[in-house]
Structure formats: C-alpha cells, structure tokens
C-alpha cells in the first residue's frame, strides 16, 4: 500500500520511525508492503529525508493516483478539514489523529467517505497509545452500554498531578509547558475542549451517533485551586478531569468536568500523561482500558494499527 | 447471516438472550440480520425453544448449506475438535470460546480454516467479557511488545480472594464450587492449565505464533497455603495466578505461576471473577485491559462481537 503523511511533527516522525524499525512485523500483520510515497509539511527542513518525496503542497499528493491512504497529522479543523474532504473525494482512505476535526465536522466527513466508498480510521485520536477503539467498536455493541467515562487529556492530568505535589495552577501549567506537554496556548487542554472532542468520539463508537458538539457541557480544570486539591486529598480523593457520555432513555448526554474520584475507582490511579477509559454495560458489566495518552511512538503504534484496519476491516460508519 | 449454536449451556443461553434483547443494536452494527437456524445440544429439555430448529446431531447442521457460521460452545478438545474441523471443511466460519481446543489444536485448525478460506474468531476464549483481543491483534503489532501478563482465571482468583478472607484452600475451593465458579473437577482452573491455554492464545495474537503447549511451564494455586497468604498480606502484597508470555531474543517463553503482586501493580486490584491483561512494549509502553472473565452475558457480548468480525474483518491468521 502506498501512503502519504501530511504533517511531520512529533507523531509523523514517530510513524516514519516505526515503519522503519518494525517493518517486518508491520508488513506481516497487514499482509502487504507499506511504502511512504510522500511526506508533506510546511517546514523546509524535512527535505533532508532524502529518500522520501517531499512537498509543501498537499494537492500534489491528491493528484498521485498510486497513493491509497493519507495520514493527516496537522490538527485543527480548517486546513485539515479541506485535506480530509479532498482526500476522500479523490478516492483515498484517511487515517487521522485529529479529534478536533472529527468531533466538530465528523458527520459531514463520514458522509463524504461513505459516498466515495473509502475508509476513515482514527484510533490515535482518542487516548493515543491505549489500544481501545477497535475493541470498543467491535466488541461492546451488544453489551447494553449505558456509560463511558474517561481521563482523556494528559496535559490536564499532569497539571493536576503537579498541583497535588504542591504547585499552584499557574506554576503547574508552566511545568507542563516546559515538559512539552502543554501548548503555548493551552486552552483546549485545560478548558476541557480536547476531552470533549475525545469523549464525543467514544460516544460515537459506542452508540453510532455523533452528538452536536455545541450540546456538550464543558468545564475545564482552570478554576481548580490549591484549596480544592487540599480538600480532595484530605477526603482521600483526587480531582480528575472526566469526560462522560451517558445514554438515558435513548438520549446521549455528554459532560466534561473535574470530578472527585474515589480510591477504589479504576480512574484514581491514572497518572501523568496516561489515559483511562471505563465503560459500564447492563450485560457486559464494567470494563477498563489504560495506556499512554500521548507520545510519538505510542500514538504512531495506533496509526499503524489503522493501516491494518484499512486493509482488513470494513469502515466504522 | 444464518448461524447455529452447538452447546446450549450458560453462555449459549446468554447468546440467544442477547440476540433477542439487543436485536436492533446488533443488526445495525453488523450490517445484516442474524438468524439462529439451529441449536444443538445433548439435552432434550431444549426442545422447548419451539421457534428454533433443534438437533442432537451436529452433522445435520453441517449439511445445511444456508448456515454460514457455527458457534461452538461445548468445550474440550475431543468432540469440539471434530466439530471445528468439519465446520471449517464444510465452508462455514467458526466462532468459539474454547481456549482448550485452540491452545492445543490451534495450528491444525488455523491451517484448515486457511485452506477452506473461512474465518475463526475467539474473543470469548480469553477474559470473556473483557473486550481486549481485537485491540491487541489490530493495534499493538508495531508497539514492540515484549511482555504480556494476565490474571485470566476467575475461579482461582476467587479462591485466592476467599483465602485472603480467612478460608483455607479446601474450603475456599468448596465456596467457589458452591458459587458455581469452579467445576466439580477443578483441575484446569486451580492447576493453571486454563490460564496456560489463555496466555498461549494472547501470545499468538501478539506475535503470530502458537507455542507448543507442552513447552509452557505451569504451576497452579493448589499448593498455596494459609501461611503463604498471610506472608503476602504482611508484606503488603497479594498472591495472584499469573500467566505471562515474554519475547526474549526472538524466543517466546510462557510461564504460569502464582506470584506476589505489589500494590502499585495494575493487577493488584483484579478481584473475584474479573480478569486483567497487561502488556509492555518498547514503543507502546504499558497498556492494561480489565473486565469480567466469565458470566453468561459478558461472554455472550464477546461472541456477538465475533459475528461482527466474521462479516467485517479479515481472519486473524
């Protein structure tokens, strides 16, 4: 399969590294060879990857009929939205880690994919290195799932951890930025928007319906004080930023907010950039998935899993 | 899709119940209607399911060309082995919860399936209601997995729990039998054989190779004393029956044994009939899956997930 990667940042570099290091494992499992035909980025520095065709203009890739699948890793829902639509319309499959794009424009994007008979997979968009989405989609639909709950944003989880160690909110945020976890503009992470994107996609996988993003109630961690953290500690609990989707009388309701989590809850011990996803079904009972929520190679592992699915599974819509 | 169920015990009854209760969800996700054409069991009482065709002779089902998939739930590796082989040779797909069969006869069975171009799925064979196998197979193969470790046998886990509460081994086993967890002959559970079957299948999913079952080192919980349990408690640890597969220099080594598990280990809090599966990969890092290891409806949920895969995914061999 000939593929192209658009957006060569941390994760894109990770994908190239794994395709190289794990070539045999990857090709054995997928059942054919994988060739990166193009890489696309705005940074010139990438031209050094001399054996890969480089372009700054993604339209060049769309015109290459030999490319079967495009991996979009630029983020956001403006240019990425154009890329997604044009990718699908040109008859190519799309793999994306872009929760922002899918949670806000997913309905339109899935429609286009269906119409053009191509696939989209997005295992890396939620809980990066926690291989959960395949099992949730393929394995829980008859389990009578009523609730799905997760710690889905590593940055805010890291900040809450640092506050438990004594930092106030502002210095904890600074520590997260210095460690490379938080963006210069941390709005999406600390205000719960990133968590809302992700829980919305989990809800889609469970119940097959993408909720209007504006209907999600979102509260972030940016109002949490040292006093709140102290209070939680004294009562044997921890504050965690929780995304939760519930099905009540055929209605799906999604909330994002900081919650006090008790010691015996699986989510209590999810620390730093780890993510945890818990679900409850009237038939299936409780399940829990745990793994790294970010990082170049864990996320790249998820993207390469999507290459398997492009070749070996029907689409998820 | 027309299906047949051979073996109508706890789990078989659960499958029939879910197919009835969750009909819409199931058919929407799978993409077609599911019809149970036959049920097969040795018990006459089943004739009461008047709208389902009943037989005591599975060969009748093999001769029905309209049946596309057979769900085998009788267990063991004698009659079940015959049923599996004949199912595949007759061009029908096979879904099974039978770890004993696959861990000991899998190589031959997978060969026959390949030759006859039919599929086998077995999500319910390992950790029943923990939807883990799809994600492990599809999502971790490029993660550089080095170790996979699990609590995979609910019965022995329950017995160890009861011993922690003060019972000695014999009375804990009795309690497990009274609660319906342990069989009259509990050998496979308490001697670690069932765990060995399951870890062997997990190892197959991760590395694509089924180990000669005789090469697995197996130690059960039947030699654990009250004193051992006391010692563990006093050092802040717990005894758990652990199955572990490791890849060392391209060699896969599998061990089953009771181990002292520390408090900060994800497996420490896996209680009663719950199962936990932990993996570590040099690229992917740590992942953890948790859910019910048994029970009619959790296990039935896994089997119905396999019906999705029959229709929507390529085979796992």
TrEMBL record, chains A, B:
Domain of life according to the entry: Bacteria
Q: What class of enzyme is it?
A: oxidoreductase
Give an example GO molecular function. homoserine dehydrogenase activity
Catalysed conversion reaction: L-homoserine + NADP(+) = L-aspartate 4-semialdehyde + NADPH + H(+)
Q: Which SUPFAM superfamilies does this UniProt record tie to the protein?
A: Glyceraldehyde-3-phosphate dehydrogenase-like, C-terminal domain (SSF55347), NAD(P)-binding Rossmann-fold domains (SSF51735)
* EC number(s) on file: 1.1.1.3
Q: Which Gene3D superfamilies match?
A: Dihydrodipicolinate Reductase, domain 2, NAD(P)-binding Rossmann-like Domain
Give start and end of each Homoserine dehydrogenase catalytic domain: 131-307
Q: Which residue range or ranges hold the Aspartate/homoserine dehydrogenase NAD-binding domain?
A: 7-123
Where would one find the signal peptide in this protein? Answer: none
The record's comment on protein family reads: Belongs to the homoserine dehydrogenase family.
The name of this protein is: Homoserine dehydrogenase
Protein source organism: Candidatus Cetobacterium colombiensis
């Amino acid at each position: 399969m000939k593929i192209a990667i658009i957006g060569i940042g941390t994760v894109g570099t990770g994908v190239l590294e794994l395709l190289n290091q794990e070539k045999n494992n990857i090709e054995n499992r997928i059942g054919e060879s994988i060739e990166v035909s193009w890489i696309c980025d705005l940074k010139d520095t990438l031209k050094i990857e001399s054996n890969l065709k480089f372009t700054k203009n993604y339209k060049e890739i769309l015109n290459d009929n030999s490319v079967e699948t495009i991996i979009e890793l630029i983020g956001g829902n403006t240019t990425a939205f154009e890329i997604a639509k044009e990718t699908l319309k040109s008859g190519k499959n799309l793999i994306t880690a872009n929760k922002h794009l899918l949670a806000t424009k997913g309905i339109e994007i899935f429609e286009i994919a269906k119409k053009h008979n191509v696939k989209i997979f997005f295992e890396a968009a939620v809980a990066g290195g926690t291989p959960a989405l395949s099992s949730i989609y393929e394995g829980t639909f008859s389990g009578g799932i009523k609730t799905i709950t997760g710690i889905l944003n590593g940055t805010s989880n890291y900040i809450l951890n640092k506050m438990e160690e004594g930092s106030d909110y502002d210095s904890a945020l600074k520590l997260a930025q210095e460690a490379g976890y938080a963006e210069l503009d941390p709005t999406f992470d600390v205000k719960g928007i990133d968590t809302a994107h992700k829980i919305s996609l989990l809800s889609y996988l469970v119940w097959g319906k993408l909720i209007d993003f504006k209907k999600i109630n979102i509260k972030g961690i940016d109002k949490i004080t040292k006093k709140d953290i102290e209070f939680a500690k004294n009562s044997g609990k921890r504050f965690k930023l929780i995304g939760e989707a519930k099905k009540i009388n055929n209605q799906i309701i999604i909330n994002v907010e900081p919650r006090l989590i008790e010691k015996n809850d699986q989510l209590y011990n999810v620390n730093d950039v780890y993510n945890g996803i818990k679900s409850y079904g009237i038939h299936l009972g409780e399940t829990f998935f745990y793994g790294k929520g970010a990082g170049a190679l864990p996320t790249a592992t998820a993207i390469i899993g999507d290459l398997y699915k492009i070749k070996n599974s029907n689409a998820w819509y």
